[in-house]
Amino acid sequence: MNNSLAKRIVVYLFVTVVVVGGASGLTWVLTDASNADYPIPQNLKAVREEGYDYVVKVVNEDNKPVQAARIQVRWAFDPNSAYKAAQIFSNEDGMAYINTYGDHVYYLELEVRARGYQTLHRYWGDRRDIDKKVDFPEELTVQLPKGQTIGGIVVTQLGEPVVGAKVELRSQRVRGDNNEYNVSLNESTPTDAQGRWELTNAPLEMAGLNINVSHSSHLENRDQRRSYQSIDAEGIKQMITKTHRLEMKRGVVIQGKITDAEGLPVANAIVIQGRDPYNRPNYNYQPRSDFQGNYRYKLGVEGSDVLTILSRDYKPTEVPVEVSYNMAPVNVQLEKGSPVEIDVKGEDGNSLRDVQVYPQGWENNSCLSLLYTREDPLKSNDQGKVIWENAPAAPIQFAFTKDGLMYNYASLAPQEEPHEITMLSTRTVNITAVDAQSGKPINNFIIEEGYLSGTVNNIAQYHYGYGQQNVAEKTYAHNINNSNSRIRLRVRAAGYKPAETPEIIASEMQELTTDIAVKMQPGVGPAGRVLDPDGNPVADATVLLFNEHGQAQLANGEVNSWGSAVQTKTNAQGEFKFEPQGDDFGLLAAHESGVIKISMGEVPEKGDYQLQKWATLSGQLLRGTEPVPDKDLNLYPRQKVYKGDQQRYRNDLTIQYSTRTDSNGAFEFKRVLPGVFELHEYVQVPMGQGMYRVLGSGRGRYEVNAGEDNKIVVGEHGDLFEAV
User: Fold this and answer.
1) Calpha distance 158→160 (Å, rounded)
2) Which residue, among 243, 240, 235, 241, has the nearest Cα to 660 in the 3D structure?
3) pLDDT-flagged residues of the chain (< 50)
4) pLDDT score of 440
5) Which of 57, 63, 302, 404 registers the highest number of CB atoms within 10 A of its CB?
6) What is the side-by-side strand order in the sheet with 527-531?
7) DSSP state of 369
8) 225: buried, middle or exposed (CB in 10 Å: 19+, 13-18, 0-12)?
9) Strand ranges across the sheet with 119-125
């Protein structure tokens, strides 16, 4: 181990131990990787590693260094491998050093957090444009704006403090003042001995703020299970003044004794309320019975439900219960189950040993994943046999896995004869690309696996832009690791239209290796210039192409970077160029000076695109003559599309705006694309059993004109009453 690496390990261990351990007398401690609000170690040193790639200097608004800022980096330099990630800290000079271990980083994300400052997030590059190296400066200065302190208290219904509750807060990412970084809140922290919590790094504006509070013996006093609830404007004000109060009610205690058919206690049995291990107030809570068979489940939720009891020595059991406070003990008698015997063999008919077998669920119950985990699965023996002695009578869903073999899945029930499972060896598909006209090989191309979205007239429909893109030189080897796989691969190359492989079905592949040569047609991609509303070329405008099944999105006037749509930036002359496209596509260009959208099928190979000025839609929401405060509103267009004899609506480009009315019912949507929009009001309606539905109420359809502040008053039925 070299000296530099040893230093880094010591530093990271020091941060993990000292940051948590040094919190005595402070409100906040570092509870997990998402919490930036932690005490600053006095002697934290960041290691300057030789051969580093980038330097990040973290300063405050007075340009003074910020020590112990946590910098999370995520980057990609090899399309054929997973993204890389690292977490580093700034030293006493605010300096941090990043080594990406690659000389062609085409995508890089940076998130900077520090106690008392707002969290900033920014990305460079494009995950879809793997040929273009990111324009990341060798030394970057990040200026953290001061955060605001928010807080509150978590109490029981009797007003007593709830100690050790985990408070999680999330807000939407919004553009910061410098328009380069996004600002958001995504933190968690425990309550102290007085039930109080506090954060010092909240944004000044918290759009779409949501909260979730969990505890080992208390429930949030609401219907939803393990779900965030939104905080309205009044709640945010209370957090700023540290007067926000959230009540938790003690969970119903479900207790009793678990015995076998002879009345002997069953120890170490898992007790879960419900059939879904993850749809619970605290999915990490898994109480077990003690040596006397006694159990105590402290997070019971009132209502009709079942208890799921799991033990490797007995049949999985469901017990109907009426959960209520002061309920009588629920004693459970477990019975032996029926054996399920499985012979696991390879394609050659020989028995396979050490195949990992995971019972996952039976009927509507999926709790078996808690009993047979990745750390402790069933395994086939030297004869390839797997026997689960205590299975339920109903069919059980099993998963089978072994290195070098495809995953396999089967639904099996107890029977007299052993079941037989055949494990297929991993298949390999070798992809090459050739020019369809000349027959010459194409040496450099990109491969992407399609997403199977369904079938139309028994023809499989695949969408692209969701999976990892892989770079190939001459040949690309694609491994098939799932016996249920049904895939199609898309090939892209510079100067050619995208082309697809035939559908590849794992269960029908007879050979271990299959060669496929994909013929590609030469083509020309769309190109042009973007002009501002006055006719001048626009540099650094975002231009994206969208189709009917892409994830292109314009949210609150900002083009999202995470979608599958192909996008680029204009150069200093306002010019852009795309590679040839396969499907019909539309175009969107956006800039601070304006926006333009060209519908699918109407984009020329080359042309000028003059932006329209952004619009604003503002007004007041009334219920009769009374203003409606703190109401969530959405604004979005709908495009009517005809296909054959069927008329339907389609959002090829998702355009959505959201806002909330103020205390006087006033609202405002900024950076609106000119056109016709529908205004909707949304409410959450509890459905019981921890579920709720979102109901929308249309408030009217309005034409929004470019460059104007379009003002409206919206009444009870969405009528346009008058201009404000």
Assistant:
1) 6
2) 235
3) 1-34, 36-48, 223-226, 640-649, 687-692, 717-724
4) 96
5) 57
6) 575-577, 527-531, 606-610
7) G
8) buried
9) 84-89, 70-76, 107-113, 119-125, 182-184, 174-175
The 10 Å Cβ neighbour count of residue 166 is 19
Supply 177's token pair. Answer: 């003042």
Q: How far is CA 395 from CA 306, 343, 411, 413, in A?
A: 19, 17, 6, 4
* CB contact at 8 A, 154 and 197: yes
Structure tokens, 71: 């910098």
- CB 418, CB 387: distance < 8 Å: no
Question: What is the DSSP secondary structure assignment for residue 275, as one 8-state letter?
Answer: S
Contact 402, 356 (CB under 8 A): yes
Indicate whether this model's pTM tops 0.90: no
Q: Among 547, 546, 489, which residue's Cα sits nearest to residue 520?
A: 489
Q: What is the pLDDT of residues 221-265, one digit of tens each?
A: 554 444 678 888 888 999 999 999 999 988 999 999 999 999 999
Rama region for 573: left / alpha / beta (φ>0; ψ in -120 to 50; rest)? alpha
Bridge partners for 472 per DSSP: 445
> 193: which DSSP letter?
T
In the numeric block, the tokens 């605001």 are attached to 148
∠ Cα 556 561 566 (to 5°): 115
Report pLDDT digits (tens) over 655-673: 889 888 998 999 999 999 9
Of 71, 118, 69, 109, the C-alpha closest to 92 is 69
Q: What is the sign, positive or negative, of the torsion defined by CA atoms of 376, 380, 381, 385? A: positive
Size (the chain), residues: 724
Which tokens in the block code for residue 190? Answer: 């425990």
> Residues of 292-324 as b/e, b for ≥16 C-beta within 10 angstroms?
ebebebbbbbeeebbbbbbbeebbbbbeebebe
In whole angstroms, what is the distance from residue 389 CA to residue 147 CA? 58
Q: What is the pLDDT of residue 506?
A: 92
> What is the pLDDT, as a whole number, of residue 33?
38
Residue labelled with tokens 């009528």: 719
